[in-house]
Design brief:
The chain is mainly alpha-helical. The protein has helices spanning about 5-25, 40-55, 60-65, 65-85, 90-95, 95-100, 105-120, 125-130, 135-145, 150-180, 185-195, 200-210, 215-255; strands at about 25-30, 35-40, 260, 265. The strands form 2 sheets. A two-stranded antiparallel ribbon has the order 1-2. A two-stranded antiparallel sheet has the order 3-4. α9 (about 135-145) packs antiparallel against α10 (about 150-180). The protein is globular, with a radius of gyration of 20 Å.
């Protein structure tokens, strides 16, 4: 381990990468049938991945930096918590449709967990990755309940990084395709944009507004309300409903499964 001498290098590297990303700023793209935005956080993740791949950042420094994730999550929990109280009135006025839409988030576990367990034979990381769309609130829930150095923490962090890198593009393309079908009402599509991720909402809302420019103001209002609800009651939905349900599903799917023993995947050499 590099010890305390590595701390200043970690902070300096974070500062430099953050400044570079902020200088680049948000980049907006309009490709005709869809539009999306790339945010500074994405650049930092890409820079870090490249520097790690070319060995500019040694593994010892990565391990030294790991505890700072927990500190960051602690501050994140405080920030998320501070938004709940002041917005309770807005949630009550939003109407049942916006509030009940949070149950749609349970679809991540219903769709993703069986694939992770039955096809990929993943361990407990599957729970962390599939109980939600792995955004900031999910990091807070898993970090507090299991710790981000656990298997569940590895899963939610993996989902968070993949979502940050590919989620913006995916949501932009998906909403553009859904708009072209004409199956869903524009308000429904706008509500679906509020996933709890600013970058994903920006990309998906841009595509919806592009398809229905005459309703831009109303669509933005619905998306903003949905985003607020996803950040506020979505945290409780994940903690009290989605995560327990995913744990129950994981236990059921791994029981009597030849690829698992006591809830853990059996290594290939041992099969």
């Amino acid at each position: 381990m590099l010890g305390k001498t590595a701390d200043w290098k970690i902070h300096l590297l974070c500062f430099v990468l953050t400044m570079i990303a902020e200088v680049i700023g948000t980049m907006k793209f309009n490709l005709g049938f869809m539009s999306f935005s790339l945010f500074p956080m994405l650049y930092v993740l890409i820079f870090g991945a490249i520097l790690g791949a070319v060995k500019v950042i040694p593994r010892d420094m990565m391990e030294e930096a790991s505890p700072y994730i927990g500190i960051s999550v602690m501050m994140l929990v405080a920030k998320v918590g501070s938004t709940i109280g002041p917005n309770l009135g807005a949630i009550a006025q939003a109407g049942p449709a916006l509030i009940l839409q949070e149950f749609g988030n349970l679809g991540t576990a219903v769709l993703a967990l069986p694939i992770a367990v039955l096809c990929l034979h993943m361990g407990r990381a599957a729970v962390g990755c599939s109980f939600s769309i792995s955004r900031e609130g999910s990091l807070a829930v898993v970090g507090d309940k299991y710790g981000l150095d656990s298997e569940e923490g590895t899963g939610v962090m993996g989902g968070y990084i993949v979502g940050t890198v590919l989620g913006t593009l995916f949501y932009g393309i998906l909403c553009s395709l859904l708009c072209s079908t004409g199956i869903f009402h524009p308000y429904s599509l706008a509500m679906a944009c509020g996933t709890g991720s600013a970058s994903m909402m920006s990309a998906s809302l841009g595509a919806v507004v592009e398809a229905y420019p005459e309703m831009a103001e109303q669509l933005t209002a619905y998306a903003a309300s949905s985003q607020l609800l996803s950040n506020v009651d979505g945290l409780y939905m994940s903690l009290f409903i989605a995560l327990p349900m995913t744990n129950w599903m994981y236990n059921k799917l791994t029981a009597n499964n030849k690829h698992y023993k006591d809830g853990k995947p059996i290594p290939k050499k041992a099969k």
